Amino acid sequence: MRALAGLWVLGLFAWGHCFVEEQDGTLHPRAGLTPEPRSPATSQPHLIFILADDQGFRDVGYHGSEIRTPTLDRLAAEGVKLENYYVQPICTPSRSQFITGKYQIHTGLQHSVIRPTQPNCLPLDDATLPQKLKEAGYATHMVGKWHLGFYRTECLPTRRGFDSFFGSLLGSGDYYTHYKCDSPGVCGYDLHENDRAAWGHGGGAYSTQMYTQRVQRILASHDPGKPLFLYIAYQAVHSPLQAPGRYLEHYTSIANARRRRYAAMLSCLDEAVANVTLALKAHGFYDNSVIVYSSDNGGQPAAGGSNWPLRGRKGTYWEGGVRAVGFVHSPLLRRRGTVCRELVHITDWYPTLLALAAGRPDEGARLDGYDVWEALSEGQRSPRVDILHNIDPVYARAAHGSWAAGHGIWDTAVQSAIRVRHWKLLTGNPGAGDWVPPQAFSSLGPSRWHTAVNAGRSPPGATLQAAALSVHVQSRPACVRVTGTP
Ligand SMILES: *[C@@H]1O[C@H](CO)[C@@H](O)[C@H](O)[C@H]1NC(C)=O
InterPro entries from the xrefs (predicted)? Predict the structure, then answer.
């Protein structure tokens, strides 16, 4: 046992083919196919990628949330819900993987986010998804949060493949003033249009509504006969917890003030997605579109989010940090109204969307993503059987790990996480591993169920309790704590 100090192993959901969700909630394999869509003006579909910020796994109506998300629920129910879908535990990493199709160990962005004062950005030699889509003939527009570096002009979204950009280069600024403070007194205006500050543009507008209006303007001015890639990276529902008053009115029954504001922000986001969808229909894009919706990482309970029943939170490699809300909605899906339990990861969008666009990755690009369209659209097996969640050699070493503990093959003090089929291996310190129950009715903020106990020093019951709890989380009670606390 000592030899494995620092290694944790746990079982995960069983996975399988895609199923059709019936009205009564039971799942049946889908027999027939839905009719072919109308023939579109361009054979290349319009690609709309909507990324939410910090939306927790539970924070969508169809995962049992008390927060109302009727639009997300409907779009997901009519499309394909991704129920074995993974992202990275924080902002920059997820965004970098989406836009390059590569794990962070292949872009040098393994450690944390790009900080405001850090002279770093997405490597310039990786061809980005919008660059490849442009080559395939697409118009490419980005609205919202970039967070992939800006210390040189070459790093800006308009130099990395987007025809236009309107949004913030960092994250977590004020939703109305669009100022972002890095530390007390170190503040800057973070609303940009193309490669310049968008002075006077914000004018006190709430970012979720402001970004939606920009999307509506793009759709109104673009010819639906030409293929369009639209990357909409909303600031919501990341802190600071700010929401227009009228969305708060629905949630007076939620006692926890942070959860209440978060709920209001999410309802506003849901309405924004409704408005985007309406605009796609009104301007003739919808029939030939693929809409992907994804959160960028797990929720932050201290800022109103919930990942229940998953363990852990944003910033951790536990399921609650990396398993995300995600779905695809499109008239072009062969089988709609399905739930896909195949393994899908955020790197997979690059090759998947590029293939839909009849584009091709660069020769020798060595992507980590897979084209998963047949798994999504037709219920085939996903080509993906593993995910390297990350290896972060810079993160603080775990006290109990060593090369010896890893049999000379691996230094178990290093923070890393990998999933292979039903198994997940965590080494080093994976982050806070407690369960945070739904917090809607507590005025005291989130409570926690601590399970992070040192198996060597605590009664075995503590570990067993964790295994019992995991029955809710995982279809098999296979949460095995081998030994050691990171
Ligand atoms: C959605 O559109 C309606 C009607 O134009 C508008 O009142 C509302 O503010 C919009 N909501 C968002 C979040 O954009």
Answer: Alkaline_phosphatase_core_sf (IPR017850), ARSB (IPR047115), Sulfatase_CS (IPR024607), Sulfatase_N (IPR000917)
CA atoms of 151 and 8, how far apart (whole Å): 39
End-of-domain residue from the set 340, 355, 385: 385
* Structural domain boundaries, residue 177: 43-385
Is there an atom of ligand 1 within 6 Å of 129 CB?
no
Residues 6 and 52 in one domain: no
Task: Verify whether ligand 1 is closer than 6 Å to residue 208 (CB atom).
Answer: yes
Q: What is the DSSP letter of 481?
A: -
What's 273's domain CATH number?
A: 3.40.720.10
Residues 285 and 145 in one domain: yes
pTM equals 0.87
Q: Residue 34: inside a domain, yes or no?
A: no
Of 385, 409, 442, at which residue does a domain stop?
385
Atom of ligand 1 nearest to the CA of 212: 14
CA of 151 to the centre of ligand 1 (A): 34
Helix (H) or strand (E) holding 468: helix 460-473
Comparing CA positions, the residue from 53, 66, 72, 75 lying closest to residue 270 is 72
Question: Does residue 275 line the site of ligand 1, with CB under 6 A?
Answer: yes
Does residue 453 lie in a domain region? yes
Rounded mean pLDDT for each run of 10 residues along the chain, 486 residues in total: 40 38 37 42 92 98 96 98 98 98 98 95 97 98 98 98 98 94 91 94 86 98 97 98 96 92 98 98 98 98 94 95 98 98 97 98 96 98 97 94 93 95 92 83 63 35 30 29 26
